[in-house]
Structure formats: C-alpha cells, structure tokens
Design brief:
The protein is α+β, with helices and mostly antiparallel strands and 170 residues long. The chain has four helices and twelve strands.
C-alpha cells in the first residue's frame, strides 16, 4: 500500500545513495574534484556514464572547458576527502592541495585517476543537458581502472552528508 506525500518526504527514502568524485582540469590545468550523488550509467554499448552538477558549481566550467572528466568510485576510507571535495569550491580552493589524494595521470584523457578509489572511469564529454538547476554531463568511457586491493565503496547513508560503506546482500 502507498500513501501520497510531499516530494521532500518521499525522497528521504533514497538512502543509501551512491557517491562519485568527478574530476576535470580547469583552464590553468589544475585538476578539480567534486563529490556528487547524482550519477548513472546511461549506455552499455558504447559504455557511457553521466553526472549531474549544480549550475553554479565551478565543476560545470571545468568539465565544459576540458571536454573530458574522470568518474571515481571512492572507497570508504576516502570519506573525509569526499566530504571536502563536495563542500568547497575549486573556484576558491585548490582542493587537492588542501586535501591530498594519491593520484596518477589518466591514460586516455587529460585528467587524473584516484589511486585509493574502488574504480575510475576516464570519460570524453559527449553531451550536456540542462535540467532544472543542474546540468547533466554524459561521458563516453574510454578507459576503466579498478583497485588491485579489495575496497568497500563509499555511499551517502543518510541525510546531512552521512557517509559510509554498505554491506550488500545478494
């Protein structure tokens, strides 16, 4: 049975929600990470992924400028960094200088991959779609990387940016 309710009440049931860190270089060549919860796989053939970024965020400028971006699935040990990357603007702060992460250059695009992540996906920008207060960036996956060590993925597990891992039962 269902009851009708306000959107704000119903959307609270979304947890756990996946978290990604999207990274694109700005005009000066500086990589800018942003933590996002609104992301999805949009195609299997060819492999494509999308992220939704709020219109006013500096990451809109960096992705639009660089025409490519990395999507990293952060590990549970990256919670502090993920919270920092999502709470500070790259317009004002060099996020990697303030909250370092082990990274290496991406192989097929002009970006970086996060070594402590569960996985990284190098994407070339295929399209942008303006939707309400966000822009959806769709990227074609041109290279994928996974951790050589077992790691649990980071999720938003509750309101107010509560981050943690989730034990999946199959």
């Amino acid at each position: 049975m269902q009851k009708q309710c306000d959107y704000r009440e119903a959307v609270k049931t979304k947890y756990p929600e996946q978290v990604v860190v999207a990274i694109a270089k700005d005009e000066g060549g500086r990589p800018n990470p942003v933590t996002l919860g609104w992301t999805m796989i949009v195609s299997g053939h060819p492999p494509m992924m999308a992220v939704a970024v709020a219109r006013g965020h500096y990451s809109v400028e960096t992705i639009s400028h660089s025409k490519c971006f990395t999507i990293a699935f952060p590990s549970e040990h990256m919670a502090e960094a993920a919270l920092f990357y999502g709470s500070n603007s790259g317009r004002n702060v060099d996020k990697f200088a303030q909250m370092p992460s082990q990274m290496t250059d991406a192989q097929k695009i002009d970006s970086v991959i996060l070594q402590d992540a569960v996985a990284n996906f190098e994407c070339t920008l295929e399209s942008e779609l303006e939707v309400g207060d966000h822009i959806i960036f769709v990227g074609k996956v041109v290279a994928s990387h996974v951790s050589t060590e077992p790691k649990k993925r980071l999720y938003t597990v509750g309101p107010n940016h509560q981050l943690g891992s989730v034990d999946a039962s199959y």
